[in-house]
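Model: Ready when you are.
Researcher: Fold this.
Model:
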Amino acid sequence: MKKDLLDITKELQEKFQSIKSTLNLDSKRQKLKELQAQMEESGFWDDSDKAQKVSQKASHLETFIKNWEEVANSLSDIPELIEIASDQELSELEKEIDFLNKKFIQGETELLLSGPYDHGNVILSLHVGNGGQDAEDFTQILERMYLRFVENKGWKTQILDESPSESGLKSATIEISGPMAYGMMKSEHGVHRLIRLSPFNAKNLRQTSFARVEILPEVEDDTELEIAETDLRVDVFRASGCGGQSVNTTDSAVRITYLPLDIVVTCQNEKSQLQNKQSAMKVLKSRLLQLKLEQQAEKLEELRGELMENSFGSQIRTYTLQPYKLVKDHRTNTEHNNPDKVFDGDIEIFIEAFLKK
């Protein structure tokens, strides 16, 4: 057992040495000091939105540095402890090495997030596809799956817009705040397919249904994305569904249409029309930014109105419940044989495979 544990530790030490230079721990420590100094300045919290983003960056950097320092210290100490350990102590060290290995895998995944928006927040949009009542139910199942994933991560959510139906959900827009939220969730962007025995069919026949998931990077205030007022149409209307006080009694909901591409964004979950308009503009800018990234366009004028169809042949992942149980990602061929766990938020296997590819 000692030899096996020593071999695993040696392998981890070699992996650590191979990535040590890419961690840039010294520069990250310096950046953390700068952010902490900024947070100590008088008037820092006067702009709460900006302060929150700086605080979030500092917290992420602090966690990143601490994790890798703990990995380095453990890898240095464990070989000597293995040599002198009793059988009972070896069992404890085995658990520690297993935990260390998991932290290493998580850290490696973080290193893959090097895009300009990967460490920022994300806007998740869900849209029902083909499949009638089953598709509406599937869209709601996906919403719950992502909310559970986000909850497990300790991130925060704010529902900006939601259109429920008798069978489930027609659409929803959710703002997700957390370290590396966009980088971790960008793998989910695309059409998802569900195959199961329909609970809405009298004959309980097998049904295929679809839903589209949009993963959008939240736009920072200083992002160079100029939208002409003449390209926008803003409509206000009375909010529907269950809202807070005053949400359903005034014309507070806002619908913004970006005329050149006919992109429509709705927000109705805030109490005031101004708040809803600000949230809707944030989502619109994020959607336009995502299009720019996908089409590698330098200017908004170069964008084309392309949108993946919510139907057969375009799916990125299939959730099969009948005649067998399997979730398969078609981009990486990654499989999970327990759809119930996946629908309960266990999607990291797909995220890691996507990032490594």
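Researcher: Now this one.
Model:
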Amino acid sequence: MTVMAKPQDRSSRDRPASAKLRLVFMGTPDFAVPALRVLAADYDIVAVYCQPPRPKGRGMRLTPQAVHQAADELELLVRVPERFDQAAADELARLAPDLLVVVAYGLILPEALLALPRLGAINGHASILPRWRGAAPIHRAIEAGDKQTGVSVMMMDKGLDTGAVILERHIDIADTDTTGTLHDKLAHLTATALAEAIPMLADGSAALTPQDHDQAIYAHKITDAEAELNFTHKTTDILNKVRAFSPWPAAWMMIKQGDKSQRLNVLAATTASAKPTPTTIAGKSGAILGKGETGGMVIATADGAIELTQVKPAGKASMSGRDYLNGYPMPDHIITAADRD
């Protein structure tokens, strides 16, 4: 059932319809930066909340988050609470926002806080809900082989990405998309979707559509361990994983050369289009079959073979598959997880 939003139901004070809305923006990574910049042009951003600075880089210097840096450029008030205790909640209440706008913030907000603004709290999420709720919707959509995704703007409630949807905008996932490229597309789509949804919410014309919780799929947080490639899987599934985990955390495999073993990150790969001269038993999953059409390493899968077109050896910069084999000997074999057990 779809219901119409009624902003006056939350109102604890009278504000003229023409008044510039007071927003509190909550976000942390670079995904949220386009939304902050778009909304700052049209609304009164009374404060920006993001996670605290974290150690980064070789020197592990304390570095402000991407949203923090953008807010500083826009000369906006920034707050970085580790958690929303009573003091942080009281400070937010004193800001008297009309609306909370949340994009990839990363902290759980108490339910009472969501009800504080007269228009409530909304979230821009990088999937078509209820598919891919949770922490890694972009990675999981590509990994699953989805052909389409998008963004949802929803009202926030006490659940995780469970609120009623105000609007959604769809986008095709190209066969060449990685999490990196799709991330950037969806970041900008989230910004425009929020800019479209907020006026509808403010004037009461927004249609709130409850999610079908029976159709929900959860996008679990990505771990480095699961990014290890398993060549007993089908070619399409392996290529989807490579795209899904590029650029982070990067799909990887362990290779053996002589008495040395090394991790090799795989940033891009393609279906092997030419039959190579095998250097091991051809057709066995995980067998290294030689060089492919573009000069990269070819590895047998459950139903074919893939060619590594972009790789990153441990401690080195990324390079093409051809350059890797020009500078390194062909590995003897791939060390599987079963080999290490």
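Researcher: Key takeaway?
Model: The chain has two domains: 3-219, 225-340.
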